[in-house]
């Protein structure tokens, strides 16, 4: 006996959340709740505007079609894997299936790399509680590329000089030309560069990013590249990690494949948020603890929202939106 319900949510965002030059006023998505033989499984399906190819109506139509087939006995894992062009659907359905089959461990670690906005006092206050990665590095993340790259270089140097224990992940989201990237590096003294664990996607093209790593000795990581057709995980000079955003990537099986390829190539695999709700973030934290226990995940995005959803993130003071408050958009007969 099987039952399935699809809920739609819309969570208010904090003011000023901008993604790819788009203001995100609400985070909208779907939750699927499955029931079979006295077991339940939940999944979150939340295409990220500006990053996902699919939009929420497309995702909702695909989920309803898949669950109709599941109700007739189809395998959910097989259905999830079939949605390679709708990664958010593949990931959410595969999580619900993994929970239903007790495959997704319950162990949840809240350690994650704080997303900081450049104020050393804010970061200083959090440094003591910063998680250390497998190399004992206290890791935080700073977004760069929003303003002048020279200013980014000066700001990053100031943070690293002020906090000798700190290691930084940076993320330029491909915003730098080679000249701007050089302008950044010129203002980071060589002795500080090793405390930049990596810069995600510094330049517009992968070749320019490889050149940046070679010329500056600053390690890079692939994020957006991982999701591009034809990308292959491989060891390359200057490349330290791949960033895996499951909601943008695909099913749990696809993510496990990428993680295994990264580890085989000697790369770090970092599970990263696509600004999911607290339910999705707790599942990502469980996945990170399970599959990438030596890498601090990048999940510090809950505070971009004004509420939690169904499942709490431990110790978050944000109000919880209960499932009873959600709109049911589809239900099995
Ligand atoms: O990876 C993290 O530490 C948090 C998530 C994060 O930085 C991002 C999520 C989604 C889009 C971007 O804003 C950004 C990224 O590009 O990695
Ligand atoms: Mg990134």
From TrEMBL:
InterPro entries noted in UniProt: Enolase-like_C_sf, Enolase-like_N, Enolase_C-like, Mandelate_racemase_C, OSB_synthase_MenC1, OSBS_N
Annotated active site: 143 (proton donor), 245 (proton acceptor)
Entry keyword set: Lyase, Magnesium, Menaquinone biosynthesis, Metal-binding
Gene Ontology molecular function: any one: O-succinylbenzoate synthase activity
Cofactor(s) listed: a divalent metal cation
Family, similarity comment: Belongs to the mandelate racemase/muconate lactonizing enzyme family. MenC type 1 subfamily.
Role according to the record: Converts 2-succinyl-6-hydroxy-2,4-cyclohexadiene-1-carboxylate (SHCHC) to 2-succinylbenzoate (OSB).
Entry protein name: o-succinylbenzoate synthase
Source organism: Rahnella woolbedingensis
Top-level taxonomy: Bacteria, Pseudomonadati, Pseudomonadota, Gammaproteobacteria, Enterobacterales
Gene coding for it: menC
């Amino acid at each position: 006996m099987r039952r399935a319900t699809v809920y739609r949510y819309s969570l208010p965002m904090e003011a000023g959340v901008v993604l790819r030059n788009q203001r995100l006023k609400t985070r909208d998505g779907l939750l699927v709740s499955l029931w079979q033989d006295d077991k339940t499984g939940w999944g979150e399906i939340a295409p990220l505007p500006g990053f996902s190819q699919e939009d929420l109506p497309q995702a909702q139509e695909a989920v309803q079609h898949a669950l109709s087939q599941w109700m007739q006995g189809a395998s959910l894992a097989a259905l999830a894997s079939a949605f390679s062009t709708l990664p958010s659907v593949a990931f959410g359905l595969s999580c619900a299936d993994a929970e239903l089959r007790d495959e997704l461990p319950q162990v949840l670690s809240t350690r994650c790399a704080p997303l900081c906005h450049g104020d050393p006092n804010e970061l200083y206050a959090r440094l003591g509680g910063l998680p250390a990665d497998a190399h004992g590095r206290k890791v935080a993340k700073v977004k760069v590329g929003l303003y002048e790259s020279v200013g980014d270089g000066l700001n990053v140097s100031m943070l690293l000089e002020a906090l000798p224990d700190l290691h930084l992940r940076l993320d330029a989201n491909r915003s730098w030309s080679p000249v701007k990237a050089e302008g950044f590096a010129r203002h980071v003294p060589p002795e500080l560069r090793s405390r930049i664990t990596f810069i995600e996607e510094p330049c517009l093209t992968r070749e320019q990013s490889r050149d940046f790593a070679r010329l500056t000795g600053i390690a890079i990581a692939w994020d957006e590249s991982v999701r591009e057709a034809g990308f292959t995980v491989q060891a390359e000079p200057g490349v330290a990690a791949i960033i895996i955003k499951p909601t943008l990537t695909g099913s749990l099986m696809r993510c496990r494949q990428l993680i295994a390829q990264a580890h085989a190539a000697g790369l770090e695999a970092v599970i990263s948020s696509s600004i999911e709700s607290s339910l999705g973030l707790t599942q990502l934290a469980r996945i990170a603890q399970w599959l990438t226990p030596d890498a601090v995940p990048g999940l510090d995005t809950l505070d971009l929202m004004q509420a939690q959803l169904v499942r709490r993130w431990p110790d978050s003071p944000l109000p919880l939106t209960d499932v009873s408050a959600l709109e049911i958009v589809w239900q099995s007969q």
